[in-house]
Amino acid sequence: MFGYIIRRILGVIPVMAIVALVVFLLLRLTPGDPAAILAGDSATAAQLERIRESLGLNDPLHLQFFNWIRQLLQGDLGTSLISNTDVSQMIGRRINPTINLAVMTIIISVLMAVPMGVIAAWRHRSWIDYGVMTFSVLGFSVPVFVIGYIFIQIFAIELRWVPVQGYAHPTQDLMGFFQRAILPSLTLATIYVALIARMTRASMLEVLGEDYIRTARAKGVRENVVLFRHALRNAAVPIMTIIGTGFALLISGVVVTESVFNIPGIGRLTVDAILARDYPVIQAMILLTAGIYVLVNLLIDISYSLIDPRIRY
Amino acid sequence: MLQRERKSIGLRTVQRGGIVAAVAAAAMSIPMAATAEETTITAVMHSSLRVLDPITTTAHITRNHGYMIYDVLIAQDENFEAQPQMADWEVSEDALVYTFTLRDGLLFHDGEPVTAEDVVASLERWGNRDAGGQLIFDVTDSLEASDDDTIVWTLSEPFEPLINTLAKQAAVPPFIMPARIAGTSPDSNIDEHIGSGPFVFVEDEYDPGQSVTYERFEDYEPRDEAASWMAGGKVVNVDRVIWTTMPDSQTAINALNSGEIDYLEQVQVDLLPILEANPDVTVELRDPLGYQTMGRMNFKHPPFDDKRIRQAALMALSQEDILATMMGDPEYYELCGAIFGCGTPYEDESGAESLLAGGDQEGARARLEEAGYDGTPIVLMQPTDVASLVNQPVVAAQALRNAGFEVDMQAMDWQTLVNRRASMDAPGEGGWNIFFTNWQIPEINDPLINVMLNGRGDEGWFGWPEDDDLEQLRADYIAASTEDEQLDVARKLQAYALDEVIYVPLGQYNMPQALRNTIEGMIPSPVPVFWNMEKRD
Q1: Mean pLDDT, to the nearest integer, of B14-36?
Q2: Residue B432 is part of a domain; what is its CATH number?
Q3: Is A40 in contact with B260 (Cβ distance < 8 A)?
Q4: Number of domains in chain B
């Protein structure tokens, strides 16, 4: 197992190198000019040229690329072309709300979706099953901003239970954090509940038809033990995959939800950076996202062997 | 048993993961919440603040930030008059020597006194970037600090608008900063943000693109006069001001309605009914002048290198059609054919008759025929991601087509547009023929500030008219020794600019602001300012 993990971690290096090269070239091929954002609307072409020169944007592409890679190898993500701020500092500030939101969303989603999926499979073709599937289709179909606005209208504006928007740091204001994070988490959770419940149901249906389930029932094992220990455990591998991928998606930014609830997360940081052609920030964010996906995939693979002893690396 | 143990480990792992996430999250810092006894105004501004150097960029939000933390020597009041702010001034009889004397009690936020050396360094850096400043430095013999409080500016020839150029609130005002900071190259951004203005920038709480915090500068000594635009006494009555960004307009409106924010700088007109229904919120026009929307053609390439075809394009356009599509409600726009804006000292609408009368399609077609327009398609750039710029191209494209132009309207994001408009290539090779943008009126209200009136070809603003007559008129304005003479030149410029179609003024519009009724004393001004403002419980 240890050797496997080391091999997987070493495998990250070429992946990240390819991502770095592709993102660097794509950005340079995209029309747009950070100097124009910096200088504003009144700047003349001559002024823009001077700014490009001072930012090193006129250097040959290979030189710009190698300078960036050298910085990266020294652990330096660079400095924002627009705000002149350290990129790692910018990401550090914005990743906190994103991680917290992702964790809360996944917890809510798993707590709701797994029992829903299990029960839907257990009561296959009953009204419970149809209800779960209907919810699942709705969760996929309704755009996230519509759900967000509906929640805001009901819980923040009409009932005034929670604030309309914003983010509070949990270590400074725990109650404020929950009050502000609950609606965006529920909003995002509708999609993930739909996804995970559907996957749980499908996986459970397959497992519930297996001989060992019939045997367990024949031995008189209680139904909840059959469902949650025997069946769910064996159905867990695809469910874990969905949960892990969902978590990675959430961590890499959910810009619409962040905008609707005014959460200063990394999704908005990335979009703002793209609109401003802030190359160092975009490059760092894409590398970070790629890294998160690789890491989450590794963790998912490791979790397989914890869930299913038959899986060995 | 083994399974149970593994399950337990799994759970612990999950719990540990959660704890790690929480600890990691806790390690990241966010702005400290204001304490209860502090008076804090939370404002949602029109844009996020990402560039902090008010000399290197002309972005409005950075200029507004500049007025928060920096002060200026001379400031413009609501009558467009220059007033002493940090300094009084005297002008020699031959109009060649300007002597500025700093007032007492001026301190930077680091506690150091403001000296004439700081002023000289700041003006030199500004003069490197600002178009008006460059013109002054073109005729500068010397700019020196004769003692700690006195600055002597000696010119080689008179430059009548010097004081007004120093007082202007448009791209870019000459903010005064410590000499060590002003020594930064004008092509690089400063990395220390210390001014002598009424608010202190709180660096630790700055989150680029998201929020910026200012605290009252306790040692700031305001002038005695009443506040008027950027002039007068900047009396700060609140402890902190937080500018935050909300990319979603509906969220900002909900936040204002629920009292989570105090001030919303710009409200989309179609969302106004939601705020107007709330008795705790006031919707008003802060900026008495608003914005000019305008079109600019490319003088370098056919067909707009031909004056007659530019005239045909101008005749095809109708201000009413464009403004009505942009704003909807006539309360928030007005027809205005003045290149220097309506409501300004140089307001004059000569030459804009067809624009104001709904266009002259017949005349446009006749002029096109006279010019022998060969059907060359016009590349018209449309930015799709800027709400205030998305509609003008659509209306203009149809009007131009109706007049007989072939129009190739190309949709793109604003960033692509600003990149492409800097291209001098032919329209078919990555260049362009026409685009639209908007200006705050103080950015265009005189011949030196208005960048579109630069006739220096490739050295000028996008579109690059190379026009000696235009340059001569600007020189006449600089040389005019009385206000009447300046007014006379401004009128000639209006007539000339519309005849040559240097650009097409498409009217004025205004964006209302909204604030909680607990906020009082905000002064009307093109730049939203937070001095004079009070917040009641």
Answers
A1: 40
A2: 3.10.105.10
A3: no
A4: 2
Angle between helices A61-73 and A279-307 (to 10 degrees): 50
B427 with B350, same domain: the answer is yes
Looking at residue B28, its pLDDT comes to 38
Residue range A223-247, pLDDT digits in tens: 989 998 889 988 998 999 999 989 9
Minimum-distance CB partner of A100 among B25, B50, B458: B25
CA A303 – CA B13 distance, rounded (Å): 10
Q: Is the confidence at residue A17, as pLDDT, over 80?
A: yes
pTM recorded for the entire structure: 0.86
Asked if the structure places residue B199 within a domain, the reply is: yes
Q: Does residue B257 form part of some domain? A: no
| CB < 8 Å from A in window 209-268 of B | 209-211, 244, 246-248, 250-251, 254-255, 257-258, 260
State whether B26 and A170 contact (CB < 8 Å). Answer: yes
Residues of B in contact with A31 (CB under 8 A): 412, 415-416, 419-420
Domain boundaries, chain A: 2-85, 88-307
pLDDT at A253: 66
Q: Is residue B106 part of a domain?
A: yes
State the complex-level ipTM. 0.84
What is the pLDDT at residue A33?
A: 81
Q: Do A93 and B419 touch (CB under 8 A)?
A: no
Q: What is the DSSP letter of B332?
A: G
Class of domain A88-307: mainly alpha
Cβ(A33)–Cβ(B419) below 8 Å = yes
> Do residues B414 and B496 share a domain?
yes
Q: Is B459 in Cβ contact with A96 (below 8 Å)?
A: no
The range of the structural domain enclosing residue B58 comes to: 40-240
In a domain, B286, yes or no: no
Same domain assignment for residues B224 and B319: no
Q: CA B65, CA B392: separation in Å to the nearest integer?
A: 29
Residues B117 and B224 in one domain: yes
For B437, the closest of A37, A41, A268 (CB atoms) is A41
CA distances from B273 to B127, B346, B455 (A): 45, 36, 45
CB B528 within 8 A of CB B290: no
Residues B348 and B451 in one domain: yes
Residues with Cβ within 8 Å of B106's Cβ and at least 6 positions away in sequence, in order, are B71, B86, B113, B114, B196, B221
Q: Express each pLDDT in B36-50 by its tens digit.
A: 578 999 999 998 898
